[in-house]
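@channel sequence for tomorrow's demo:
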Amino acid sequence: MSTGPGSTGPGSTALRERPAGAGTSNGGVPARRAVIRWSWRMFRREWRQQVLVLALIVVALAATVLGAAVSVNNPPPAHAGFGTAQDMATFQDGGSQLASQIAALQHRFGRVDVIENQAIAIPGSINAYDLRAQNPDGPFGQPMLSLVSGHYPAGPGQVAVTDGVAAAFNLKIGDQWRQGGQTRLVTGIVQNPQSLLDEFALVAPGQVSAPSQVTVLFDAPGLAPGKIGPEVQTPASVAATNPLNPETITLGLATVGMLLIALMAVGGFTVLAQRRLRSLGMLGALGATDRNIRLVVRANGVLVGVFGALAGAILGLAGWFAYRPHLESTSHHLIGAFALPWIVIGPAMALAVVATYFAASRPARSITRVPLVAALSGRPAPPKQVHRSAVPGVVLLVAAGLLFGYTGKSNGNGSGALTLVGGFVVLIAAVLLLAPLGLAILGLAARRAPVAVRLALRDLVRYRARSGSALAAISLGVLIAVLICVLTAQRYGNSLDYAGPNLASNQVIVYAAGSGNGPNGPNGPGSSVTPGTPQAQAATALAIATALGSHSVTELEQTSANLQHAAAGRSWSGPVYVATPQLLAAFGIKASDVNPDADILTMRPGLSGVSRMQLLYGNSGQGQGGQVNPGNGPGNGPGGATSYPCPKATCLANPVIQEVGGLPSGTSAPNTVITEHAIHTLGLTTGVSGWLIQAPHPPTAAQITNARLTAAAAGMTIETKSSTPSSAEILDLATVFGLAIALGILAMSIGLIRSETARDLRTLTATGAGSTTRRMVTAATAFALALAGAVLGTIAAYVAAIGYAFDNPLDGLSELTNIPVSNLLIILIGMPTVAGVVGMLLAGREPSGVAHQPLD
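structure tokens (generated this afternoon):
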């Protein structure tokens, strides 16, 4: 009887093992399910280590949801005035052909919805309202009409009014209202949900006898408005003119924000993986493959992204529900509770998950490269050589400069958009690759530093995987802030094509009828009102000033003269008023402050030093009828269209320009004036073009509306402060943005780096180091990271700015001499100082459990 190993006889005593079933090399679905459960337990156990990443995602998602909702719903709806129709024909009066025109539209396109309006002035007021005939159950106009209380008018003797009309005539439901020789019963209060400023009295269809405007809503699918008639408009054509819609801008900002969060999260997940290094090593010793170990870290990243996205979306929705009533009152139209840009919110939530997944992928790959014995001992992997990333980083930095240079050279012809995006992508990649080089330079600086500073700097180099991503994120935040500051200073510092707010908040300009200025200028829609005499227009301006509570009314005069820059670059833009004694006195400028030989007075900094300036007058002037069109000159295009020097008979080359700081700074205000000396020398004539009113307080929206209606009744126009921000506002916001981003990243990064060096800190404390030394370590870490990020971000920003301006036909390298010194000093010196001081104050607490090593 055989008992050998190969025997299979009945007397054999050999035991057989059950054959192993065929399976995948990585354990298949059971193994993945097991490591995902282990990752979930690690997420619950280590949630405190990830709370900062979670908080960043929650805040970013909440800001995205709320910001997208506000930016999309704040403007009037794209279909405002159209209801549910796709086309709208507007006829300005009810002429004899109106009935035939409506019949033709109805015959051609089927259903139509006719809305008749008759403008009626409120007695004793400059306000007006519309007497409106509209069918509440019309096929297209129902979204433009809603019932607040009562019921709609059902017959010729009934009317429903808006709240504004009810307040103006002291009406309530059930009152008899005599209007236009007819008495009507007030049956309800109505409103236009798409425009709460729309004040009207609603009557039944056919009850408006003399309409001043008739709107016909209809659907003409597949036909362009121009093929139907000149009076036809469509909401699609309006939306097509705005490619940079709020959804696109918000999604772009959310993408940039998630990129910064991903960079910050890299350090967090790296620290988490390092803290769990022994556990991950034990998992590998038990047979887990590299793929299983990577899945542990990546699944943890996905969990962080999912929970952060859900919590952020819930917080954003709660903020939206709370803010929506206020937004309705400020935007003057009703907004649905769930009228949200889901096309932005959905991708933003997905971006949060994708960002944390890729942020966890880098430490997931790195952790699998650690040998098993080193992982079980808990030793971190040595950092990579710096030259591996420094050389490609420098190459990409140069490539980014070249791409920005091509973009600047093609400025104005629309062919640089692709290279602009490519330049930013390459620049961000260069910053990411150059961050380790910045840490290596910090390590070199540690050789002769005090012990505490040396420990801090060498820890930054030692734990480069954490500090490198933090430095890159800080640098990107600083890059954005510095680039905004530099480009803003470059653009706003141009004294020729002047940019900025048009007026101060308390200033109002009333333009004379036919002056060529304001909305009714040569490019405006015009006015059908016959203008009054100059004396009557002056009385109207004085009446507007009185209504605003102002007694400061300055007459604005102009001539046919205008300035011109006969060289390459930007050309002159803006009005040139006359420096009358009244105007100079209004701004506190004495006659002794003016150079007797000066031809031009200006507050634009640097204008007196611009070469090849010319003062055109006579037949070569820019004006028309003794007036100038402020802001409509060739200020947005390259100069050099006129020979230099110009003919003496109609032009004064190199006029004497004196800078006077007392003049107002608004682009529409008299910031540049021609002196009476130049007027007498050149034989120019003057004419009144408007009146500048300086009110004691900024006018309210109601005062502005009343002033505009008063001016329109006399064929005049007004101009008030626009929403254009000043350079100081943009610079301050950009600086605050850079500081907030950098300090927020530092707050998280310092905690992560110092938690990694907790063992060294215990050793340092055990050898007798006091709280001052521990404070110095934290302060030096914060200061060094902030300084390196500020320097790297500033260098990258100036590479982009110099490249863009190198061959730019409008804003060349000379414009970069307008350096925002104070803002750069705040970023380069103030931010590292604040980081160091805060680190010094908040650190120093003695570590708990100095005598023992905590178990992982």
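heads up for whoever presents: The chain has a mean pLDDT of 78.
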